[in-house]
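To whoever is on call:

I kicked off a structure prediction for a single chain this morning and the downstream step that reads the tokens threw a length-mismatch warning. I double-checked the sequence; it's 97 residues and nothing unusual in it as far as I can see. Pasting both halves so you can look.
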Amino acid sequence: MSHESPLDTAEPRANTALGVSALAVLLYVVAMILDERGDYGWLWPVAGLVGGAGAVMGWQAGRPRPRGRALLAVVLGGLVLLSIVGWIVVAAINGDL
């Protein structure tokens, strides 16, 4: 029976979280580029959800206080999620939804 300490699994989980957050940034950039065509509006919520998932994964990987790659995953994923949520709030206030 093998017993893994939380420190043994923290680095691979942080790498996975960083990969998910990087995917969210990529989806965000692709959504900005393809938004001009008009048929790719579904990419925005997908990028936000993936960003939120990456931020949560980074937080869980670096618990109780994220450092290194886990912190970078939290920041990148959180920025994508917050920018999309912020845009939704501003659009709702202005009546552009």
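Update from on-call: the warning came from a stale cache, not from the record. Cleared it. Sanity check on the structure: The first helix runs from residue 6 to 34.
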